[in-house]
Input
Amino acid sequence: MVIVVALLHPWEGKPIPWASTAALVVFLFGALTDWLDGWLARRLGQVSDFGKFMDALVDKIFTMGTFVSLLALGIVGLWALFPILLILSREFLITGLRLVAAAQGKTLAAEKAGKVKTVMQITSISLYLAQGSIVHDLSGVTLCNDWIQWAGILGQAADLTLILACLLTVYSGVTYLVKYWNVFTASNS
Output
């Protein structure tokens, strides 16, 4: 995530040539290797409580750090502040719930709805990065004259998936809290 943000940061007020495309490639590589790591762990029977907790935590750092950076760099419009804050709040709340559970010797694995929201968040970020790639890097390539039109379409798709990711995030957070509310209310006797 740090590399993605470094690539997106303008140097002397201008985007670094091909850095937006490199940021997209690095982000997609990170998302793919995260998925592959989980798939291999399940396939090889190497799933652990530590792995379940850390995978969920790293996913949150990966997506939320990138969303906040996109907002800070002005890549995502200011309108996205509220959905991103909602997503961030849910992520902190669920991580807190997992930490409380861990203190009680319990491990709370990710739910299916949580995995879907993560995929939607990664999709939204990927679309924003792809839009930046077209605007900053590919618009000068003469293979296609409609690059800017594609950038607009990708921007709208990114906005829509961000809204959908926010709704899925809130839904999955509420269902997770309802399911594991007893972790918060359990007394240690």
